Amino acid sequence: QAVDEQEAAEESVSHKLTQRELTYDKAAQSLLNKLIRNNLVNNPNQVEVLQKDPNSPLYSVKSFEELRLKPQLLQGVYGMGFNRPSKIQETALPMMLAEPPQNLIAQSQSGTGKTAAFVLAMLSHVDPNKTYPQCLCVSPTYELALQTGKVIEQMGKHYPEVSLVYAIRGNKLQRGMKLQEQIVIGTPGTMLDWCGKFKFIDPKKIMVFVLDEADVMIATQGHQDQSIRIQRMLPKNCQMLLFSATFEETVWSFAQRIVPDPNIIKLKREEETLDTIKQYYVLCNSREEKFHSLCNIYGAITIAQAMIFCHTRKTAGWLAGELSREDHQVALLSGEMQVEQRAAVIDRFREGKEKVLVTTNVCARGIDVEQVSVVINFDLPVDKDGNPDNETYLHRIGRTGRFGKRGLAINMVDSKMSMNILNRIQEHFSKKIEKLDTDDLDEIE
Ligand code: ADP
């Protein structure tokens, strides 16, 4: 136990490390979400719209036809399997496609259709007969830029006259050359060099400037400044668009420096609740006993799919091994894996190829696997100081109110300390966590 705690402490310290790592973590999470998400998230909240000119009529569309897109683009949109605009697209698209173009700041959680929206706006605005850059899109990392690039390619599939180039480190161009591609997508540093130092791009000819993932962007030292310097080179009538999944004060003040006279669209994240969850705890004396209780639970109830959270990589690895030996089909998600590997593991789990996903706290932050009906906290979530991490607890087992199916959460307690954590979590949410006797499991079915 002591060893485990020390290891856990080391792991959380190593996750507190540098600014650079923190940033990487945000960008990695965002990338992970993109890699595993293949459709829109359902969000029943209303969008909040703040218009630059509150007296102008607010247009919203219920179909892509209403937008009068170029036929090649409409074909691209339908080819991607989109039938109708998502909730934020309903208002964001008419604003972005209006004449004269309007500036926009939009905030909504990942998976709500922001990328698809600004890609469509960029593709609609370019003039394919002009062979110079007209749209710039900056993203926080190379990998995120590539993901957006893929969306441009898919949506522009029937519009081959429009082409795209990546302004990313490693993409070296000859001195003195001028880009012919209409759309440039890249990271702020390289984009700035291409516009300024190397003059591969004439910033005065840019008509649309997109800044994606503003919240991830400002977490990187230097990105904010570089983005602002790019923005200052652009003409006054260039359309400025900024997107973010979250909206803290720092993001907001950055957004206002990038986007003058903005229209603002916000879609609140759906609140998570414990109301539809049955919460239990199991009292054990050791890690081995926790494992045996877990096996008893598995023997007694039918569990379609479960996620099991451990505090350290070592415990997660050990548990996954033990479960496999008991013939469970287990997937292990672990901190040392690359984002793509993690995405592949999560994908397989979502497809039901594995029934159990064992993971560490740190690793599973920010991912949603909606269909999981049973969540097991093999170790309770604690922060770096050993206090209960209520937010993680809620995110892990909480369901969103409206679409929430009933769920089951089982917490494994194996010491006075973890009992104390459990009690504090219980108090925090004012919701009882019942004791479960794993030798008599009739009650939970
Ligand atoms: P965000 O940028 O907010 O994370 P995306 O634009 O990446 O959201 O969209 C999330 C997922 O939903 C993607 O898989 C995308 O292809 C899909 N999607 C986007 N817009 C629509 C739509 N109107 N109809 C159906 N699916 C959509």
From TrEMBL:
- Motif Q motif location, chain numbering: 62-90
DEAD-box RNA helicase Q domain residues are 62-90
User: Domain Helicase ATP-binding spans what residues?
Assistant: 95-265
Q: What class of enzyme is it?
A: hydrolase
Positions of the region Disordered?
Answer: 1-14
Its GO CC terms?
cytoplasm; nucleus
Q: Which UniProt keywords apply?
A: ATP-binding, Cytoplasm, Helicase, Hydrolase, Nucleotide-binding, Nucleus, RNA-binding
Extract one GO molecular function annotation from the record. ATP binding
What Pfam family is a match, any one? Helicase_C
Query: What EC number(s) does this enzyme carry?
Result: 3.6.4.13
Reaction catalysis annotation? ATP + H2O = ADP + phosphate + H(+)
Q: Where in the cell is it found?
A: Cytoplasm; Nucleus
By its UniProt entry, which CDD domains does this protein fall under?
Answer: SF2_C_DEAD (cd18787)
Q: Which residues form the Helicase C-terminal domain?
A: 276-444
- PANTHER family according to UniProt: ATP-DEPENDENT RNA HELICASE DBP3 (PTHR47958)
What protein does this entry describe? RNA helicase
Lineage summary: Eukaryota, Metazoa, Chordata, Craniata, Vertebrata
